[in-house]
Design goal:
Strand order of the largest sheet: 1-2-3-4
Structural class: alpha+beta
Distance between the termini: 76 Å
Order of helices and strands: HHHEEEE
Largest sheet: 4 strands, antiparallel
CATH topology: Nuclear Transport Factor 2, Chain: A
Number of domains: 1
Helix content: 40-55%
Strand content: 25-35%
Radius of gyration: 21 Å
Shape: elongated
Number of helices: 3
CATH class: Alpha Beta
Length: about 140
């Protein structure tokens, strides 16, 4: 009788362990997203454009990068996340961000609202930004 209960207990334990590990994997992916977006926002705030570009999804043509001369004039004063939506399978995240900045030649603070699409690259095991750097004018 005790062997039967022990056997049922062990089966339930291993089933819970299996589902628990799947949950941990998903949490780790979202934890990676948090670390990635914190690093990205740091690079944006400090105008470290080359470092921020590392987070961009690789394309055959990297023509989407902003003009380097324009980027030298941009100073970001604030980068804040306004809304975040995670896909059901947790492989895509859409964020609405607000970026306040000024150009050295104008000295007027401007605000842009951007929609960022982040996608999980399972092969590289990292998050990549599909929508590019903020569109400064």
């Amino acid at each position: 009788m005790i062997k039967m209960y022990l056997k049922k207990f062990l089966i339930c334990f291993f089933i819970l362990l299996l589902f628990g590990c799947a949950k941990i994997e998903k949490m780790t992916k979202l934890d990676d997203f948090d670390v990635t977006t914190r690093a990205y926002s740091h690079h944006i705030r400090w105008a470290e454009w080359d470092d921020a570009a590392i987070f961009l999804k690789s394309t055959k043509e990297d023509t989407d990068l902003p003009d380097p001369e324009l980027m030298k004039m941009i100073k970001v004063t604030d980068y804040s996340i306004k809304k975040t939506a995670v896909s059901e399978d947790q492989t895509r995240v859409v964020q609405i961000v607000e970026v306040q900045y000024y150009r050295n030649d104008r000295m007027i603070v401007e605000t842009i609202r951007e929609k960022e699409l982040w996608e999980w690259n399972a092969e590289k095991e990292k998050w990549e930004l599909s929508t590019g750097l903020p569109n400064f004018k």
